[in-house]
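FORM 7B: Structural annotation worksheet

SECTION A. Query
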Amino acid sequence: MRGIRNKVAFIDAPFTDGREQKYMWHFWGVVPEGEFTVIGVKEGSDELSPVLTRGSQSVWTYHSPGGQHADEHLPSTMSVRESGKWALLIYIGEEYFDQIIVEVN
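SECTION B. Predicted structure
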């Protein structure tokens, strides 16, 4: 698993630039209500990029991962457009939830 212990993580699979891959997100504790958003920011850049995909389309959000339940999961597909170190900024609803750093080959 890659992420923040006892908060949010996904099953760790390598990221390859431009390649869509399935990831299962896991959430622990109280999960806010609202849509799930993952925004990619490449190290050294301030450009925001959608990371989640639906079909072959990049999207900003997915449906809500939970609500008032203790432990939740959410399947997703993600694709990062180019190699390097990326911060995946996680939002649920309007609330910043956390970030996970990944290396994209």
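SECTION C. Observations
The mean pLDDT is 90. The radius of gyration is 13 Å.

SECTION D. Sign-off
Analyst initials: ____
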